[in-house]
Amino acid sequence: xxxxxxxxxxxxxxxxxxxxxxxxxxxxxxxxxxxxxxxxxxxxxxxxxxxxxxxxxxxxxxxxxxxxxxxxxxxxxxxxxxxxxxxxxxxxxxxxxxxxxxxxxxxxxxxxxxxxxxxxxxxxxxxxxxxxxxxxxxxxxxxxxxxxxxxxxxxxxxxxxxxxxxxxxxxxxxxxxxxxxxxxxxxxxxxxxxxxxxxxxxxxxxxxxxxxxxxxxxxxxxxxxxxxxxxxxxxxxxxxxxxxxxxxxxxxxxxxxxxxxxxxxxxxxxxxxxxxxxxxxxxxxxxxxxxxxxxxxxxxxxxxxxxxxxxxxxxxxxxxxxxxxxx
Length: 327
Fold this sequence. Notes:
With 327 residues, the protein is an alpha/beta fold. 42% of the residues lie in helices and 16% in strands. The protein is built from 13 helices and 13 strands. It has an 8-stranded parallel barrel, surrounded by 8 helices. The chain has a two-stranded antiparallel ribbon with strand order 1-2. Strand 7 (128-133), helix 7 (144-159) and strand 8 (166-170) form a beta-alpha-beta unit. Helix 1 packs parallel to helix 5 (84-97), helix 3 (56-66) runs antiparallel to helix 4 and helix 10 (249-257) crosses helix 12 (276-291).
């Protein structure tokens, strides 16, 4: 029997496939379906900081000056259908109905007004918390160090309130990502998720309007987290997970080879259905059999920078080689 188990955030997962935070994980029934189709864990649909921080009336009072009407309507509707108490109930019922780890998710942008809620999440029985810190610098006067300190402050406030393992889902836009990642681990996080797929931006050249970009990722987008996981695996003291562009079995294998503990799947499940989890797991099993690996940990990280005899292949030399192939 092959051993597909992996360790992530101090938990043993039956396989490395995690269903990422999305509408496919917003109810206990859907969490149960994820488990039935082979998920190793689930990240519940995110609860927005705004839902915890404000009552609907407070949002209404500030909507005219601070919120785009569509944003306001979304938060109001989401809070009515999916509020703080409902979220705790989802955690409790999901834990009763499944045996896989259930990770709560908070989409946040500050350390104020909501962090006490993290303790309620812990008491409801969540196995871990994923902080999806969704903030994008737009102020030319804001220094890079200020942005990093903002993230650190959020983590520190949550760590004061819970003993649960914490993963942080970040974007790739940091001037020194390795140093920033190390700074997060020094503040006690257990995992990093690469990367937050921020709202995709596009422009309609006919209507002359700003529009949304691609809703779903594709496999070409996986190269960015792949590189950073390869560079950081085993060199910072936390688990690493990939969350962008995981569509096929090969995408999973690549990330495990460079050192990921787990991969988060989302877009491919919207496109192919939850049964795609079984296809991915079967593909991983077939690949391991073909290559003679009897467990995930026998090949996990063997192609990371830490274990490489040619570290230059990950940086300057790889860049030069790429130019040779196109010039």
